[in-house]
Amino acid sequence: MTPNPAAPASSRELLIDGRPLRVFDGLLPNVGEYVQGLARAMFTRTEFARPETAEHKHWATEIKLEALMRQPIFEVTHLAVGGFAGPGFGYRPYRAYTNVASYGDMLFTHTDCLPDQHDLTALWYLCERWDLEWGGETMFYDAQDEIACAVRPQPGRLVVFDGAIKHVGRPPNRICYAPRYTFAIKFERVAIGGA
């Protein structure tokens, strides 16, 4: 896969069962503004990981795509996602939302798309600070359900990954009183240029 020259440089990248995952740091200098906005946002307990875990809902708030595309965070995300595009295809956003998790919440493993779709998930960690001891990592699993990678929250960190990689966000540890905000933008792979 040839990266798009306009895409920002990743701080870490790997393949999990041949599927890409990249971590980006330092792309969102105004992360505090997003955190302040989320502190006033209306969250509902409507989101769930998989149909069989639907009774265990967690907090989320949806963002309309029209509003998302006017935000500076979208342009940065779009550039990072563009680095995954290959000849004849690109990515188009189809959903955006923020999850919030606190100590005691239960989150479950899941995938964001079917294996043959090759959709991407762009996941932002929106916090002003995050202590290593607070936990809250996103765990990524290989085909044998072994942990292949853990990405910990950091202010303004972005992880972009193939949506077919099984993953789970872990809630914060008991000593953490800060909310764990993750802002997800889902992208579908689309043909471009008549391909």
Automatic annotation (TrEMBL):
The keyword Oxidoreductase applies. It comes from the Bacteria. Keywords: Dioxygenase, Oxidoreductase. Coiled coil: none annotated. Pfam families: 2OG-FeII_Oxy_3. Residues 19-188 form the Prolyl 4-hydroxylase alpha subunit domain. Its cofactor is L-ascorbate. Gene3D superfamilies: q2cbj1_9rhob like domain. The keyword Oxidoreductase applies. PANTHER family: FE2OG DIOXYGENASE DOMAIN-CONTAINING PROTEIN, PROLYL 4-HYDROXYLASE ALPHA SUBUNIT FE(2+) 2OG DIOXYGENASE DOMAIN-CONTAINING PROTEIN. This is Prolyl 4-hydroxylase alpha subunit domain-containing protein. It comes from Agrilutibacter niabensis.
